[in-house]
Amino acid sequence: SSSHPLWPEIEHVVQQQVEWARLGLGDSGSGWQLFAEDGEMRMYRREEEVDGMVVDPLKAVHIVKGITGHEVCHYFFSPQYRYDWETTLEQMTVLETISEDTCLFLQTHKRIWPASQRDVIFWSHIRHLPNNQDRDGPDIWTVVNHSTEHKDHPANSGKCVRIFLTVCMLCQTRVIPPKDGTPITRDDISCKITYCSVVNPGGWAPASVLRALYKREYPKFLKRFTAYVINQTKDKQIMF
Ligand SMILES: CCCCCc1ccc(-c2ccc(S(=O)(=O)CCO)cc2)cc1[C@H]1C[C@H]1c1ccccn1
After folding, report:
1. Tens digits of per-residue pLDDT, 55-67?
2. Vertex 159 angle, CA 115 and 211, to 5°
3. Backbone region of residue 186 per phi and psi (left: phi > 0; alpha: psi in -120 to 50; beta: other values)
């Protein structure tokens, strides 16, 4: 609900992340390096460090046939599916259901040698930005995850190092209606996904270890997640 104390931050970060995700990759001078490619998926990162820690921004663009942006965001946002597709997840707790489109999560991720185990607290907000003003404008669904604090779970109080992140999953659905006026099927739809993430690993970890880990984990995550949505939706009514 819009009266929650987090609401002003949610509003601001969602607007900022939608703008950021919709920006292209600029020219080669903007520092984005293509580091992974698989079919329609292209993953870019910029090498950035804060206090000697790797905080490389990541931007992935992927085009997936047969699913809609609403479906991608539904399965990304909803807690009940997360263990099915998030392989690095050890424990997920919904600390608060702020509204039907906003939750507060605590997640501990599996320890990745040689770094120590990590946990994260973030609010997650799903939003539909319809293109009702101009018909040929983009119809966008997005989920934004942004780390925050929680009084009952102070950072670095247990075995885990607290990480900080901002993630935006932004989707634009494309429909090519059949010429013969027959009903739209999954063969006529596709979704352009822009996934942006900035993860601050919290405690120090060797830059080479982190970059190798991201290079392995991010392509795996996006391929596995999109395959999961295709499989979950293939025999279901299209969610526009
Ligand atoms: C030295 C360890 C560095 C930090 C390890 C870590 C923790 C959380 C996360 C993470 C947390 C949330 C999200 S999400 O998009 O909001 C979805 C909801 O789960 C995404 C990624 C990432 C990583 C880094 C492994 C890297 C990695 C990359 C993609 C998937 C898994 N692991």
Report:
1. 999 999 999 999 9
2. 20
3. alpha
| CA dist., res. 143 & res. 165, Å (int) | 14
pLDDT one-digit tens code per residue, 63-103: 999 999 999 999 999 999 999 999 999 999 999 999 999 99
> How far apart are the CA of 119 and the centre of ligand 1, in A?
9
Scored b (16 or more CB within 10 A) or e, 167-204 reads bbbbbbbeeeeeeeeeeeebebbbbbbbbbbbbbbbee
Ligand 1 proximal residues by C-beta, below 6 Å? 86, 88, 107, 109, 112, 115, 118, 120, 145, 163, 165, 167, 197, 199, 201, 205, 210, 213-214, 217-218, 221
Report the alpha-carbon distance of residue 202 to residue 209 in Å, rounded.
14
Query: What is the rounded distance in angstroms from the CA atom of residue 134 to the CA atom of residue 227?
Result: 32
Name the residue at shortest CA distance from atom 18 of ligand 1: 86
Residue 92 CA, distance from chain mean position: 16
Q: What is the pTM of this model?
A: 0.96
